[in-house]
Amino acid sequence: MRYKGLIEKYRDRLPVSDSTSIISLGEGNTPLIKLENIPKELGKEVDLYVKYEGLNPTGSFKDRGMTMAVTKAVEGGSEAIICASTGNTSAAAAAYAARAGIKAFVVIPEGKIALGKLAQAMIHGSIIIQIKGNFDDGMQIVKEISDHAPVTIVNSINPFRLQGQKTAAFEIIEELGSAPDYHCLPVGNAGNITAHWMGYTEYHEIGKSDSTPTMLGYQAEGAAPFIKGSRVDNPETIATAIRIGNPQSWDQALKLSKESNGWFDAFADKEILAAQKMLTEKEGVFCEPASATSVAGAMRDIKLGKIPEGSSVVCTLTGHGLKDPDSAIAQCDQSAMINVNPTLEEVKKAILDQM
Ligand SMILES: *Cc1c(COP(=O)(O)O)cnc(C)c1O
């Protein structure tokens, strides 16, 4: 049967009825890729997988939540949605609003949005409100705005977002036959880690998985409220998708971390970029910097033995690498580009010099 998106597939586990008209772009059903070379390099026996959420229609996992949030907004008669965003939520909101024929307002921090995400918000015709502030400032305003204007909030505080996002855990269980031992995620607002835990516990309760995983949340050092134990006022990191100091799902994330015997940890920007580069060069998988935080964490904890050998580990790669071409190009060696004249002789020489 033709795949028609995650609401159609998981209809009986989502808050929709037979009469709900679904706004979908065919999101979900993303590949779970088993890493071959990184575990070898670590010298450890682990089954390490990445769930490549960058292959969703707008290039991030946000589509899983947005198909639900926009479907329910339209069902409820809403004609406009709004979100604060570090970029990917605005890209998803813009695309699904276009699909639904409603307006999208996106509030973004000026100058702190990766280029690909800004392009998406613009080309889909959303109305972009840039603020001279960060995500947390934007979020504060958006939370108050629905009392003053007829717009539906589609940030992850909209409960339908997490309902859609929990389906990633369903897919992993279906593919592996049971939950993995560990699940690693980059954490910003902590909506996604919360949604995954919902998905895992739900499938465990109905007998589709023997177990639930230990949930590991990884942050950037400059934006690590879960490590600090309190809000961070001026979060800063190259991983702009997790440049968040005041996580909206704070309580839920602390609770699930405890329940699953999990932990939080933080990584310097250069460790995050090194993990991103390792994935591209050793495995052929290109994710954006924030996403690579999950793999930086998994690699360190496998190396330290905090994740023991014999474990199965899934890392969520939350967004596609093409979202942020600037950071990708900036970290590559420009001198690796070979400039020659357009002759057979010079191209041949350039090749043979490298062999
Ligand atoms: C939104 C986002 C995150 C953070 O997810 P939260 O639910 O806010 O914790 C991580 N990576 C990427 C690429 C994102 O777009």
Outline the fold blueprint.
Blueprint: H1 6-9, E1 32-34, H2 37-42, E2 47-52, H3 62-75, E3 80-84, H4 88-100, E4 103-109, H5 115-123, E5 127-131, H6 135-145, E6 152-153, H7 159-165, H8 167-176, E7 182-186, H9 191-205, E8 214-220, H10 225-228, H11 250-259, E9 263-267, H12 269-283, H13 289-303, E10 312-317, H14 325-330, H15 344-354
Parallel strand pairs: 2-10, 3-4, 3-6, 4-5, 7-8, 7-10, 8-9
Antiparallel strand pairs: 1-2
Helix pairs in contact: 3-4, 3-7, 4-5, 7-9, 8-9, 12-13
Bound molecules: pyridoxal-5'-phosphate (PLP).
The site of pyridoxal-5'-phosphate has 18 residues, from helix 9 and helix 13.
Report what the structure shows.
The protein is α/β, with parallel strands linked by helices and 355 residues long. The protein has two domains: 225 residues, Rossmann fold (3-Layer(aba) Sandwich), CATH 3.40.50.1100; 92 residues, Rossmann fold, CATH 3.40.50.1100. 42% of the residues lie in helices and 14% in strands. The chain contains 15 helices and ten strands. The strands form two sheets. It has a six-stranded mixed beta sheet, sandwiched between helices. Strands 5-4-3-6 form a four-stranded parallel beta sheet. The site of pyridoxal-5'-phosphate has 18 residues, from helix 9 and helix 13.
